[in-house]
Amino acid sequence: MRNILMVCTANICRSPMAQIVATHLAERSGLSRDVRVDSAGTHASKGAPQPDGRARAALEKRGYAVGKGKSRRIEPKDFDRFDLILAMDRSNLKNLLALCPLEYQPKLRLFLETAKQTGPEEVPDPYYGNAEGFERVLDLCEAGVGGWLLEPA
Fold first, then answer.
1. pLDDT digits (tens, 9 = 90+) for 68-106
2. Residue 52 has what DSSP assignment?
3. How confident is the model at residue 147 (pLDDT cuts 50, 70, 90)?
């Protein structure tokens, strides 16, 4: 079983969107028994509802099943539990590096690192924007997820 953790700032927009897309793709690809995906935030408030309503709307518009979730902050045990920890942007990667024990730092990567596209290297935070920003984040999640799920462990 490969355990992948998606990480953004508050765990209400980008990382839960990536988690939902990854879970959907894993099921569609017959990998749901081999891959477990979760999400967390570097500065998440415990128990805030996720995903954000605008993220939920973008996901549902494209046919993704969105359950009820609660945001959570990354915990020290996550660095051991997860095989791969994917930061949505460099700021979150920097925060993860500061929290992560040296032995687990090779698990930390940028989410879009394996995206089969040219374009941004980071997933922008859509929180203070409009619905188009959430659509763009969903585009990037769809582009980025496949590389990580299909990459050998």
1. 889 999 999 999 999 999 999 999 999 999 999 999 999
2. -
3. confident
Q: How far apart are CA 43 and CA 92, in angstroms?
A: 9
**Number of neighbouring beta carbons within 10 Å of residue 9:** 20
3-state secondary structure 90-102: HHHHHHHHHHCCH
Query: pTM higher than 0.85, yes or no?
Result: yes
11: left (phi over 0), alpha (psi -120 to 50) or beta: left
CATH 3.40.50.2300 given to domain 2-150: yes
Domain boundaries, the chain: 2-150
Catalytic sites, residue numbers = 8, 14, 125
